[in-house]
Design brief:
two-stranded antiparallel ribbon; Alpha-Beta Plaits; 31% strand; 5 helices; single chain; globular; alpha+beta; eight-stranded antiparallel barrel; 10 strands
């Protein structure tokens, strides 16, 4: 499956999208054709003892598609998502947008785990830099990290996203992150409990065994509202 990340970052960490603008975002995101699932994301709070919270996007959209052509159909200048810009939504004024289409890889959560719901909280990790050997880096990450993620208490979703090429005429600049992942929980409280569990220590230890890379990692908690799917 292919997934689109659309994010808006504001230099003011206290910035929030206005209710009227958020409602318009819901309508536009809910109108995306050929999408399997669409999430509207807003900032959450969850303490992680290993990482101070990085600047959280004031708004995020994540949309899922069966094919790359389906994803590209949502990224034209006349598609509904093109109406989500800092120029058309006043409370996003000053926010910087970025888009990236990736391959979404889903992983099993423990048997009996609560199913994903219309409202959830995700811890999203982005790797914007470069690996010395990307194939080796991704191979290690995919083989080791999801197994540990699945041990988080309360986890209901695991996803790792890797790079692909795409064509678009959408109005936002592109991001070129080498990888993104997210773990999903029922609430910000459940996410924070997981981040302060012993499993977080296992995650940190595995991080130190990653093959060489540069650029660090960005960690952001986001509230997720499903508007399609």
């Amino acid at each position: 499956m292919f997934t689109l990340f659309l994010q808006f970052h504001n230099t003011d960490p206290a910035a929030r999208i206005a209710a009227v603008d958020l409602e318009r975002v819901r309508r536009l995101a809910g109108s995306v054709e050929r999408a399997r699932k669409v999430l509207v994301m807003t900032p959450a709070q969850a303490r992680d003892r290993y990482n101070s919270q990085d600047p959280v996007p004031v708004l995020g959209i994540q949309a899922y598609f069966d094919t790359i052509e389906d994803a590209e159909s949502a990224l034209t200048a006349h598609a509904p998502l093109a109406g989500i810009t800092a120029e058309t939504l006043p409370s996003l004024a000053g926010a910087v947008a970025s888009q990236q289409v990736m391959v979404a890889r889903g992983y099993a959560v423990p048997e009996g785990a609560e199913p994903e719901r219309d409202f959830s909280c995700a811890y999203m990790v982005h790797y914007p830099g470069h690996a010395q050997d990307l194939n080796a880096w991704l191979g290690y990450y995919i083989a080791h990290h999801p197994v540990i993620m699945a041990r988080f208490p309360g986890i209901i979703g695991i996803e790792i996203c890797t790079r692909t090429d795409w064509v678009d005429t959408a109005p936002w600049p592109r991001a070129e992150h080498m990888q993104r992942n997210k773990v999903v929980f029922a609430s910000s409280e459940a996410l924070e409990a997981a981040l302060n569990s012993p499993v977080r220590d296992e995650m940190r230890a595995d991080f130190h065994d990653f093959p060489p890379f540069e650029g660090g990692a960005i960690h952001v908690p986001m509230l997720c509202e499903r508007v399609v799917g």
